[in-house]
């Protein structure tokens, strides 16, 4: 009987030593993110997740026109509908402008949750702080983009709206159909950015990751777009004091290729607009009224636009250095925003000084401008803003902001037989929540 | 390789010596059925005065060695009367023994194998299907699993989806769907193409829990047990040679009904007139235009006259690229198989050796496979047979060449990625490759060549000869087994298997291949001074992928068998096993590769470059390097017990616990216990039973659980790390799986009720089985609101229920010189997803059921189902399709689609057969055999393709375009909508998902015919061989009947099922 006993002992030993045997991870590339390297890798997903900016607003901003023939051949119904501000949205597929920012929020939350559960040693402290700052910045960036597209426009000192966004502060994926108020979402964004400013490093060599300046610039954009010009002004001053590098456009070579390299000096935070067929089409022509704003000695005219043989000009100069359009934050945006805040604060001297130094880099044989009144100054700065910062997802935000302030900007699409228009403060300024969301979470649709 | 051969030769020599060592006289004999003349394998030969006994081999032959003298020999075989005969030793001639069938006997004993043990079928309670050697070798295919088609009740072959086969329906939604394959008692992880069907002795399919639950957590999809050939003890050397050749029809590009050239050109002209191509003409990525559009542009620009343009286009309209595809890309596929088997054994040892060589040419020119297989099996008994040592060695080497160009991938690679313009030509009249318009505008390419870039034209036919894509793989399996009789009732078995599979995939794109030229040209940089530089050096590009997987499996098993008081029969096995599988892979690319001198060049992966065709953008040199690795570990403990009382009452029980290395799961969740129990009652053994027409009647009832695991899921957030981001070159990660704290294993419960019966004289026998199969905790995919951060979530959310039956009936219609047998089986299955809380949108169900690969279950319906929209007919005024909105025909497409709830969809039925089976008739007269198999599939539906207009007026779509509504009155003869002025996805949807396009899939087809002639030397003739068989075989012979009028084969709608003809010879020396 003894020999059986040995056999059982051997089998028993085999079974009890399984603990380690079964802890081996099943795949080399697979991890349960539990360390700073893993979190950093998640935040470095700059192609599939982060560093992408919704672009549907740009389609609807009417800086571009597209002939009917070409419009009808656009493959995505979303972009066709957005182009004519259609109220009836029946595209059943995924709308990346809605889903990708929420993915960014989810990834940021995975990292924030993870950082909260792991032990961080003394020498990891700086890196952990930076990663937390990056995650907070990304979450704020995503929420702000969603806010601008899918919720009604509200002012910092005005009425709130109940049609905000669901608030997601952790990585659990339980559906949440409850839309918090716009004010709640805004305070989340501001809190995230304020904290990110404390945590992020001053210098970040990778432009796909936020630095302190990026967080300040985004916070400035958030205040600015809701009309809180004094808060924006404060941040503008800080950013200006820290230095805003500009490229001298008048010295750039005019070639068929892209004059701006990737990660160039004007880029504070690199992000690209989501790709729609619309943007790549040679039949997406710059609106003639917009084109008329550029004088012949404006260097931007030759740098930005190209005639590819169609009946109009295409836009070609992307601060991404690639064929994808820029949707990040640049020094030129910060500077022009700051100047506008100065004008609104009636600091016309500094405003004109800064604007002149800016225009020197944009216009050949530039003659200095002086402001005689605030109205005149505002007109000039808004014109410069329009010429400099179109084509990067900001126009949609400006349209809502300016129309609220009474600028009465009417947009129109002329297809010959049918004409579509978007009137100031129209409900169509708020994109409908995609059916994919409404069907699955019974979220309340935006009023039409 | 060399070492393996040496080893085999050495072992061969050893066996030879072993046989010579016997100093006895040899008696050769053969046992046959006195009525049919068929040899009787498995008959028992006993020598009365000695303790010796042997069993006949599969040809009914035996060899026994005896000292000089006179002996009485008793031959017995179940189902036959015993025979006693006297024999004088030595005796030169073969002893012929004929047995008369026992009028009141049971059918021959069938042994079924669970992979752990062999048991006589009459003792089994579970549901087994045995596919014997004759059936396995009936079909001619390189792939073993194909040989089970239409001969295995309960095994369904699917024509859509990723799961090729299901045993009694699909037991899972998203986890692994393939049945567990056991070869020589161990799970096999390699590709099934590596099994030479000629080495297979038999296959057993385990269908219910009692049969399969011994395999526990991996048996959820059923188990297929494969036994390879082995010699018998005390049998003479038998050499058999098999050689066969088969050839298939050529594939036909015209099979799929696509728009013809003239319709295509007229749409192109129409679109051109509408300015549709204005965007592409100025494309910033230099997107290509078709030759017709280029011609129209030339005419518009005045480069050619309108008359010239019409003439050029007129010439195009005479062409059809499908002719070239048939001539240059398709070929009749061929297969040559050669195999040699040597088997034999002495008193204490036996062996089986085989070598095989297969060579096949694929249906695509440039694809083919070679396979060499060698196997060696040996059993040696020691200590009076108390110890048995068995070894097995299997070696498979395969070479695949994959140079073919798949016609389905031929395209202009324009923005819309439509199919290739149909008036393309692949070769000139001499058969030389000619270019097609591809990827870039022709004018741009010519201009670039003028600037000093490489020839940039794409000649599809040239690619086949300019690339050398091959995969070489080596598969080695080593089995060691030790059986030791600890006691007369107790046996210890330790077995071990080592498996290794190495595969090397090389893809060489020569310097002249379009692949290399294109990449080199795209990266060509224009310097400020106008000179060119080449970041990718000119030369070939070589991709190498290596992967290596090996596994160790170790099992310890104790088995106890005892019979006492002639009434009790108990058999128990218990054991434990370990498995460790590890795989590694790496891939690499070499630029500027020169195979003659083995030189490669360094390239700059870090810098950004401007693509030549698209200079406003930046790109990097593609970096193709990486490592992968996976580890799969299992530990299991199991037991199985069977008890028979009074040869009437059977009881069985089995239990198993598995644990596996699932990522991010608490240890206690890593394992799952599963069990089964069964009851059997042989009613015909009861005293009260006196129904003489059914001498065998047996009832079986089983219940139990099998399991399944989805290794890709985890309770925690898991992420996959990738090499380097395009933008920063840094590593990045993607969340693979959101956290799921409630994750558990899938469980499938199976209940089986079966009745086995056999008629008088054994002329009719069969079984009826009825089963319920319930899946619980199945991993399901929920569409999630995107605001969660994910759009799909996987968790244990689903339940399924299937019920069905398998009927098998064999009749021996005529016995005698002329024989006629009929084998019939019918399997029916009704599958349903019973719990799947989350609903997708109606359009998604429609879409998924049209694709057939993704699974999106709707509660209450089968997993694979066809849904449709009610059809409102065409509008007689404009030919617009109409759906139904609020009970009325409507053209408000957006409202029709958006108001649709999943419940409103018409459920047309399952998209997979719910009834299937086959009826096979075998006729024989002397050595002549004729067999044909007719199979049927029914109770399922499919969606017919038709025209989808999209945004390009249906360009390149279905040939139904020709029969579309064009003027009032057409609606009386056609249901095909008119061309819309502005393309609308929902207008297309209302038609393409309408119920008029759903067809019934039911059909009957002539599966195959096999004609063979067998010559035996024993039957009075002297031949240089013992027996030989010549056969002719025709496979996939065509549809005999189908329910739908649709001209296409319901199961093969995009590509044709090809007829296949084979002939071959089997010789046994």
UniProtKB/TrEMBL annotation, chain B:
Keyword rRNA-binding set for record: no
Subcellular location: Cell outer membrane
Bilayer topology annotation: Multi-pass membrane protein
This protein's record includes keyword Transport: yes
Span of the signal peptide: 1-21
Alphabetical UniProt keywords: Cell outer membrane, Membrane, Signal, Transmembrane, Transmembrane beta strand, Transport
Top-level lineage group: Bacteria
Predominant localisation class: membrane
Domain TonB-dependent receptor plug, first and last residues per copy: 121-223
Stated family: Belongs to the TonB-dependent receptor family.
Protein's UniProt name: SusC/RagA family TonB-linked outer membrane protein
